[in-house]
Amino acid sequence: MLDLFSNVKLLHALTPLIRTADAVSTGFDRLNFRSVLHLIQVGITGDTLSGSVFLDVILEHSDSLASGYTAVTDSSHYTGSMVTPASGVVAVINDNAEDDVVVAIEYKGPKRYSRINLDVTGTHTNGMETGVISMGAFPRYIGRNQFSDANVAGT
Question: pTM here?
């Protein structure tokens, strides 16, 4: 089938919650897909963000689902913009005018697994709502997608 629904894999990688500490999404296994689009949902923070109280969104990859993740630093391994390519930082949310946003980054590198690391810096007393949805794209086969996450409605 050539429709979009049949040719993507959705993963509810990190449940949207109000967070005051670091969190990492579930790694996405792109065995049957050429790339992964990570969508990072950032809600309205309850704190005053600044140069010392902020959130870094970091793209990581690994050969193993369980361990060995490192920041993606090679520009040929992602599509989208990075704030700090040398450390894999996709976005820095350090001003209250920058929250309530969806950040998107596509991973297309050589590793089988990729994930998002939400690195909280400073004291986040009230927290910030964050979550991650990951979507496998450009399947290595065409047909009914049977690999979607059970936690995604309609799959």
Answer: 0.90
